Amino acid sequence: MTRFNTQLVHGLPVGDNATGAVNPPIYNSTTYAFEKVGSMPRYDYARSGNPTREFLENQIAQLEHGTRGFAFASGLAAIHAVLSVFKPGDRIVVGKNIYGGTYSLFHEYFADRGLTFDAVDTHDAAALEAAVAGDRAQGVQPAKAVYFEVLTNPLLDVNDVRAIANIAHRHGAIAIVDNTFVTPYLQRPLDLGADVVLHSATKYLAGHSDVNAGLVVTLGEKIGQQIYFAQNRFGGVLAPAECDAVRRGIQTLALRMDRQQANAKAVAQYLLAHPLVKTVNYPGLPGRERELAAKGLRGAGGVLSFEVVPGVDPADVLDNLHVFRLAVSLGAVESLAELPCRMTHFELPREERLKVGITDELVRLSIGIEDAADLIEDLGQAFDIAYEQYIRRHADVDVFGELTAGVLA
Ligand SMILES: *Cc1c(COP(=O)(O)O)cnc(C)c1O
């Protein structure tokens, strides 16, 4: 079975029951009977292995074209396990603009345990090459890994996995890719040279804002063994019921993503033409198809961001949305809107935020599977209210005040 959509639905045989059930069972068992002392059962204890988890792990390994998959209780648990393969003194080159929780895990946890992190603009090949190569004369060893996200958050820059993995490999480093925003439907980083791909499956893979989960897929045998060790010894494993929720979510991944992308394109084009919108960040806009294709992406996903024009308060837009929910996270069936400077990226000092382009006017949208016309109408009426507020704030206060006083009198 080679085609992706069929693989999503039934890529793996459901053959371990005698009932004909079309779905794999959920094994709520933490321990497994030995046939006799000295026998080697396939499973013995659920932290080490559980058939429901293994189904999901094989499913994601197949979809990402890797050799082994691993399911964790969250995206960050997955990232923690991956980074745990490095040792004190190892240097990791990290793309700028990575997920805030990842940034914090690196700088507030792993940095204290001897890893060093160098942030670099991964679009600048020369800068990346220099950062990975290090400087032996100065005692800076070559990096052990390059860690980056395919689409950056919330500005949606497109990283070129093939180019970055090539540079990493030239210096003996591995390439670790967070594929959360993209999913294997739109790109399989391992095919483009990456060594490890990981997901916050909380987002597009589960797809319904109802489960926290993380997935890792590896290609090489050694890194696979190391990640298995980390999974089994830290024990941040995904519980069977959650594994099944992610498994089921994955079956509709392509359907959801198709609608999300079509909606995102429609919303992005609407925003581009709106007088209260200054900039729109969405790599799925017409004219960028060749850039996407050149970087090995079959689509731009369902997240976009935009800036309102100066003077308009983005909170006036966000507080008046009704179809969009005001919430962090992304990738689910429902559309979400948020203000990065106050919500997802509030921990980043303002100066740092502005340096990477996350202005106070920037709004992020995660587009769901609703009717595009409803999403656009929702934004339209919220912009109208934001414009009224803008007029009220910028009207000649004296005249306006007198007028109001007169009316009220
Ligand atoms: C959400 C997210 C994470 C963290 O995943 P959790 O499931 O919340 O732990 C990591 N990377 C990206 C790109 C994310 O969006």
Automatic annotation (TrEMBL):
The modification N6-(pyridoxal phosphate)lysine is found at K203. It is an enzyme of class 4 (lyase). It holds the Pfam family Cys_Met_Meta_PP. One of its GO terms (cellular component) is cytoplasm. Transmembrane segments: none annotated. SUPFAM superfamilies: PLP-dependent transferases. It comes from the Bacteria. This is Cystathionine beta-lyase.
